[in-house]
């Protein structure tokens, strides 16, 4: 499609958007509420912000409150009986999330469960899937991974008595002869590195979409390459789940985990999901840290000795389900279901291409600032996020953007991340960002 840089054109795109009405299902903050400027006579302040931070914390669905209230009511009226006689009995509450979760990550229901928080799950999964020996002990990860992943991996390596310097291999982008670096990784380089590491490689542990650059890695090829050398492939999908199409089962990924509060709009510190490939569903030989909720549900309450795991991902559960965070998650999953992930992805691609087009035009139309987009241009290699590097004073421009009602985030050392989210961002949001950029570039 040929885009235009007019406001009219942005409206037209919104008018033609069959998902546009989903925006009304979310609470979108106003400038007043965000800047604590409670002067409600300030008309400008009542405008909704341009919220481009759904990659960090998704917005609240208007239905969320009712989902929580349902569980509070059952607790109020039924007490412990809510486990059995609540509208959504708590005993099996987590199962309410399974089918929708499986769809979002491209899994079979037996392969997923919602539980705990992301970093906790990373550890639990590494307990089972990082089992180094003297010969095969290395972990390959992307350089500049999210710090929690770095700490988790480093501590796992040490836990097994290895030194992080020997055991952790970080993939960095290429540099040319003039030491000018590329911004993102080339798939061919990742595959080559896996082959090189060969029988020393125990685990490939990558983010699905890198939080800083927005690069979506080729998880299928990475998994294939890992398996070819006898290693395991696991992914942190914090920035991928609900953002990019995933087919974890078909890609034969061994394990994955993600959080629910970014693209999945399930509230700060919200619950997490895990994927464990079906081939491990009955594999009792895998070491795991066990708890009663992973025990065979038929005799979970017999309170007997001897752990017998549930089949599949549920066998990795430790504790009884966190009902309130899960209720919040359910509200959002129901919206995803209603919108249909393929429709969302289609709009997402268009939104991001449009945003990119506006930024490229901004660069042409003025000479004060040049914005470089370091996220891959190929739509197969990215989700909705664009990572922007300003040629000067990026941090200052980020602050100005915030004051003007564009909520994006600044990530050290020099990136502004913007993520137009197909569920609640409009084409007009992108256009407003472009207009504001032009106004502040003086
Ligand atoms: C957001 C994010 C986290 C955060 O971990 P929590 O355990 O949910 O606090 C970890 N890893 C990655 C890659 C993330 O993007």
UniProtKB/TrEMBL annotation:
Residues that, per the record, bind pyridoxal 5'-phosphate: 118-119, 146-149, 236, 239, 261, 292, 320
EC number: 3.7.1.3
HAMAP family in UniProt: Kynureninase (MF_01970)
One Gene Ontology CC term in the entry: cytoplasm
The protein, known as: Kynureninase
Biological process (GO), any one: anthranilate metabolic process
SUPFAM superfamilies documented for this protein: PLP-dependent transferases
Family per similarity comment: Belongs to the kynureninase family.
Primary enzyme class: hydrolase
Pfam families according to UniProt: KYNU_C (PF22580)
Catalytic activity: L-kynurenine + H2O = anthranilate + L-alanine + H(+); 3-hydroxy-L-kynurenine + H2O = 3-hydroxyanthranilate + L-alanine + H(+)
Job of this protein: Catalyzes the cleavage of L-kynurenine (L-Kyn) and L-3-hydroxykynurenine (L-3OHKyn) into anthranilic acid (AA) and 3-hydroxyanthranilic acid (3-OHAA), respectively.
């Amino acid at each position: 499609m040929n885009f235009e840089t007019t406001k009219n054109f942005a409206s037209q795109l919104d008018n033609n958007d069959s998902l546009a009405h989903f925006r009304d299902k979310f609470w979108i903050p106003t400038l007043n509420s965000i800047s604590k400027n409670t002067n409600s006579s300030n008309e400008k302040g009542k405008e909704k912000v341009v919220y481009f931070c759904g990659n960090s914390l998704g917005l609240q669905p208007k239905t969320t409150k009712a989902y929580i209230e349902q569980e509070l009511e059952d607790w109020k009226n039924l007490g412990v009986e809510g486990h059995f006689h609540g509208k959504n009995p708590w005993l099996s509450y987590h199962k309410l999330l399974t089918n929708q979760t499986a769809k979002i990550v491209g899994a079979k229901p037996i392969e997923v469960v919602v539980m705990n928080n992301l970093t906790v799950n990373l550890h639990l999964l590494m307990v089972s899937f990082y089992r180094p020996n003297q010969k095969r002990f290395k972990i390959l990860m992307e350089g500049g991974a999210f710090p929690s992943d770095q700490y988790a991996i480093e501590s796992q390596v040490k836990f097994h008595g290895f030194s992080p310097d020997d055991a952790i291999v970080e993939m960095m982008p290429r540099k040319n002869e003039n030491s000018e670096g590329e911004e993102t990784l080339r798939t061919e380089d990742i595959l080559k590195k896996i082959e090189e590491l060969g029988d020393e490689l125990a685990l490939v542990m990558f983010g699905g979409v890198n939080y800083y650059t927005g690069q979506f890695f080729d998880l299928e090829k990475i998994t294939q390459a890992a398996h070819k050398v006898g290693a395991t492939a696991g992914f942190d999908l914090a920035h991928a789940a609900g953002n990019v199409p995933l087919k974890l089962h078909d890609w034969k990924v061994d394990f994955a985990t993600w959080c629910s509060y970014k693209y999945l709009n399930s509230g700060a510190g919200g619950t997490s999901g895990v994927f464990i490939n079906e081939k491990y569903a009955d594999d009792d030989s895998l070491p795991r840290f066990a708890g009663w909720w992973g025990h065979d549900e038929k005799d979970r309450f017999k309170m007997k000795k001897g752990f017998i795991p549930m089949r599949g991902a549920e066998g990795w559960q430790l504790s009884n389900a966190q009902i309130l965070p899960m209720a919040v998650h359910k509200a959002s999953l129901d919206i995803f279901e209603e919108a249909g992930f393929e429709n969302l992805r289609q709009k997402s691609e268009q939104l991001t291409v449009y945003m990119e087009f506006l930024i490229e035009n901004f660069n042409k139309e003025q000479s004060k600032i040049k914005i470089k987009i370091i996220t891959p241009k190929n739509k197969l290699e990215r989700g909705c996020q664009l990572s922007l590097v300003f040629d000067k004073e990026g941090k200052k421009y980020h602050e100005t953007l915030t004051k003007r009602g564009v909520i994006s985030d600044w990530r050290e050392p020099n990136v502004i991340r913007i993520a137009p989210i197909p569920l609640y961002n409009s084409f007009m949001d992108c256009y407003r960002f472009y207009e504001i950029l032009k106004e502040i570039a003086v």
